[in-house]
Amino acid sequence: EVQLVESGGGLVQPGGSLRLSCKASGFTFGIYEMSWVRQAPGKGPEWVSTIETLSARAPVRTYYADFAKGRFTISRDNAKNTLYLQMNDLKPEDTAIYYCARGPASLAMTGTHRGQGTQVTVSS
Fold first, then answer.
1. How many CA atoms lie within 13 A of 3 on its CB side?
2. Is 83 exposed, middle or buried (0-12, 13-18, 19+ CB in 10 A)?
3. pLDDT tens-digit map of 85-119
4. Which DSSP symbol is given to 43?
5. Strand 96-102 relative to strand 34-39, pairing
6. Which of 50, 65, 88, 118 is the most exposed, having the fewest neighbouring CB atoms within 10 Å of its CB?
7. Where are the beta strands (DSSP E) in the chain?
């Protein structure tokens, strides 16, 4: 059974930082692309970032939504079956529940194989 458990959310002031983690189990984590998706109150899901599988022949590829470029960094530790999202310079509009999901952006947006989410609130 695929299980994804997010953690690291919380209340932070504008300009602050948070590091989200997603512990995966029930599947071979290292062979799957992984994504982060968020959902703000009253809005639909919004893709944040995707990381490809590691390759010994090339740097791992990462992709970001425009709002995340330059502020968010996605990474993974296959030895720990864990996905991360480092978020810096947070803004009130980043307030949302953040979910990790197995797969590329297109699959992540469907809600298939997604964790329960972690709340991020950016407020002074």
1. 5
2. buried
3. 999 999 999 999 999 999 998 888 888 899 999 99
4. S
5. antiparallel
6. 88
7. 3-7, 10-12, 18-25, 34-39, 45-51, 62-64, 72-77, 82-87, 96-102, 118-122
Could you tell me the two tokens for 2? 């695929």
Q: Buried (b) or exposed (e) across 58-76, using 16+ Cβ within 10 A?
A: eeeeebbbeebeeebbbeb
| Residue with more model confidence, 70 or 57 | 70
Helix (H, G, I), strand (E, B) or coil at 80: helix
Which 3 state secondary structure label does DSSP give 31?
Answer: helix
Residue recorded with tokens 């893709």: 47
Q: Is the pLDDT of residue 57 over 80?
A: no
- Residue 56 scores a pLDDT above 80: no
Tokens representing 83 are 């996905």
Is residue 61 within 8 A of residue 51, CB to CB? The reply is yes
Please state the rounded mean pLDDT for residues 26-39: 95
